Amino acid sequence: LWTPRNIIEDSLQAIRAKVENDRVILGLSGGVDSSVVGALLHKAIGDRLTCVFVDTGLLRLNEGDQVMTTFAQHMGIQVIRINAENRFLQALEGVSDPEQKRKIIGRLFVEIFDEEAGKITDARWLAQGTIYPDVIESAGSKTGKAQVIKSHHNVGGLPEEMNLKLVEPLRELFKDEVRQIGLELGLPYEMVYRHPFPGPGLGVRILGEVKKEYAELLRRADAIFIDELRRHELYDKVSQAFAVFLPVKSVGVMGDGRRYDFVVALRAVETVDFMTARWAHLPYDFLDLVSRRIINEVPGISRVTYDISGKPPATIEWE
Ligand code: XMP
Question: Domain GMPS ATP-PPase, which positions (predicted)?
Answer without folding.
Answer: 2-194
